[in-house]
Amino acid sequence: MDANISIGQWVESLASKGRHSFSLNEVRNTFANDTEAAMKLKLTRLAGKGKIISIHKGYYLIITPQYASRGVLPPSLFIDGLMKFLKRRYYVSLLNAAAFHGAAHQQPQEYFVVTNFPVLRPTGKKGIKINYISKKEIPEPYLEKRKTETGFINISNPALTAIDLVQFDKRVGGLDRVATVLNELTEAIKPEQITESFLQTMPVTAIQRLGFLLDVILKQDIGKHLYEVSQKAGLDFFRIPLKTAAAKKGFPADERWKVIVNTEIEIDG
């Protein structure tokens, strides 16, 4: 590294090579002769000029001219790099994954990312909010890679997206919104995505609710396929409420899916 180059010029050189981020450790290694205080002061000045933003402790985004007015990059451009920096396995999930699969009924205001434990705190900067959902195991076989300007990101395949939407329905605004998104997502869910091995790694209660929504509410053939594969997989259905936080007594139950129908589902046209 040229001894006369400034941290600002170094950041510009990264951007010219297509880089959108860097870590504090990279700065330390590149400017080993600077003191920690001097480095951090220079980074703070760059941030003040809107050239960079700290998105996580020790990790910075480079704000290229096309995103200068926003002051931050879209999460799809930096989430893979951030997760690598944090040494986390991950995938983009819920409404964001559904949008990749063509079910973009409404633009989500938040970005949902599933990671392994321990739990990550939400990332919130310049109007962007990334919510993290923690799972014990990341179901790698059911992820897809999608190309972005900066490389690739991991997203859930359509079947996993559907299961996650039902399992975490409260995170996206409830079952009405889930059913609305599923109504569009079903076109992307292929029978070969729903296998016995897939279902055996998913929560049975989420499978029951998803099946009820697909089969009974949306009247989609993929719902019948889901039931057949569930039976082959030997899944043990038991009575559960459609809406988890509502009363269960006094409501009819669907015999096939063993779902107590304790709420009416309204699909947004």
Question: What tags apply to this protein structure?
Answer:
269 residues, alpha+beta, Arc Repressor Mutant, subunit A, Beta Polymerase, domain 2, four-stranded mixed β-sheet, 10 helices, elongated
Written overview of the protein:
The chain has helices at 7-16, 24-30, 36-48, 75-85, 94-100, 158-167, 175-185, 196-199, 204-217, 221-232, and strands spanning 21-23, 52-56, 59-62, 90-92, 111-116, 123-125, 128-135, 143-148, 151-156, 240-241, 253-254, 259-260. With 269 residues, it is α+β, with helices and mostly antiparallel strands. It has two domains: 7-67, Arc Repressor Mutant, subunit A (Orthogonal Bundle); 75-260, Beta Polymerase, domain 2, CATH 3.30.460. The strands form four sheets. The chain has a four-stranded mixed β-sheet with strand order 4-5-7-6. Strands 1-3-2 form a three-stranded antiparallel β-sheet. A hairpin with a 2-residue loop joins strand 8 and strand 9. Helix 5 (94-100) runs antiparallel to helix 6 (158-167) and helix 6 crosses helix 9 (204-217).
What would you say about this model in short?
The chain is α+β, with helices and mostly antiparallel strands and 269 residues long. It is built from 10 helices and 12 strands.
How many E-type strands? 12
Q: So what's the overall shape?
A: elongated
- What is the typical, i.e. mean, pLDDT? 94
The level of helicity is: 25-40%
The computed structural class is: alpha+beta
- If you compute it from the alpha carbons, what radius of gyration comes out, rounded to the nearest whole angstrom? 22 Å
| CATH top level assignment of the largest domain | Alpha Beta
Report the portion of residues in β strands. 15-25%
* Quaternary organisation: single chain
Distance between the termini: 58 Å
Number of domains: 2
Sheet with the most strands: spatial strand order: 4-5-7-6
User: Which CATH architecture of the largest domain?
Assistant: 2-Layer Sandwich
Largest sheet: 4 strands, mixed
Spans of at least 5 consecutive residues with low confidence: none
Please provide the ordered H/E string of secondary-structure elements: HEHHEEHEHEEEEEHHHHHEEE
- Helical region count? 10
